[in-house]
Amino acid sequence: MSMKKDGGEIKALLFDFGGTLAFLDFDFLAAEFSRPDRKLDSLKLEHAEYAGREALDKRMLSNQKTNVNAAYEDFFRGWMGAAGIPEREFRDILDRFRILHAEACMWRVVRPGTHEALDRLKSAGLKLAIVSNAEGRVEADARRFGIAKYFDVIIDSHVVGVEKPNPKIFQLALDALGVSPEQAMYAGDIYSIDMIGARAAGITGKLIDQHGMYHWVEHAKIRHVGELHRLS
Q1: Is it true that the peptide bond before 36 is cis, omega within 30 degrees of 0?
Q2: Residue 1's pLDDT band (cuts 50, 70, 90)
Q3: Given a cut of 90, is residue 98 above it in pLDDT?
Q4: DSSP track, 46-115
Q5: Residue 232 CB partners (closer than 8 Å, separation 6+)
Q6: Is the separation of the CB atoms in 155 and 129 below 8 Å?
Q7: What average pLDDT does this structure show over 77-98?
Q8: CA distance 179 to 29
């Protein structure tokens, strides 16, 4: 089974990892970053994360030569500020987040319906791949979360030496799957990294916007990875 795009046959679906297949553990982080005089709510923290994405996008879109890691500092500052955390705490919390993430991936919540969607797509005969900017452990994390079995290819920027939005990382996935850009679609959660990169590689992308709050860019959006496809 396949689906059509502009008259052509779609044979492969590509996915980002963090924020697309596995989400931040907002419950854990809300508890970790709360203080006796400041109780953080996990949903508020999740909504505030959009401010981080907006800050990251603005940094990346204003200067295409911006280092992605530097842009993620803007992400974190925007996120923390929107969550109501005082600026004087940003550095300590960022350092703590990095330690926690190094110990155990913070993007670790696979939300309801994800397994079912991936199983449906895989069973339909589509080739599936992960294309992630990461630290070299995406494949291990995907195994740990029980989703690696659905994917034909897992591309980790640390392993391959190139990161999004560079279109070369998408091309690596296409080559490994044996498909053309026109035969693929991609889902990711950061416009300036995921959608810009996919477009540069000739791939149609859809932006993950689970809460309908990604208001600063005009782009095709979906709320869940299961919405990337329309199986015929």
Answers
A1: no
A2: very low
A3: yes
A4: HHHHHHHHHHHHHHHHH-TT--HHHHHHHHHHHHHHHTT--GGGHHHHHHHHHHHHHHS-SEEE--TTHH
A5: 1, 2, 3, 4
A6: yes
A7: 95
A8: 39
10 Å Cβ neighbour count for 87? 9
Task: Measure the CA–CA gap between 107 and 218, rounded to whole angstroms.
Answer: 26
- The token pair that represents 191 in the structure block: 């416009």
Q: Which residues contact 5 (CB under 8 A, 6 or more apart)?
A: 182, 185, 204
| Average pLDDT score, the chain | 94
Q: Are 20 and 225 in contact (CB under 8 A)?
A: yes
- Strand order of the β-sheet with 12-15 is 153-156, 127-132, 12-15, 184-188, 204-208, 221-222
User: Residue 155: which of 186, 132, 127, 123 has the closest Cα?
Assistant: 132
Distance CA 42, CA 29 (A): 8
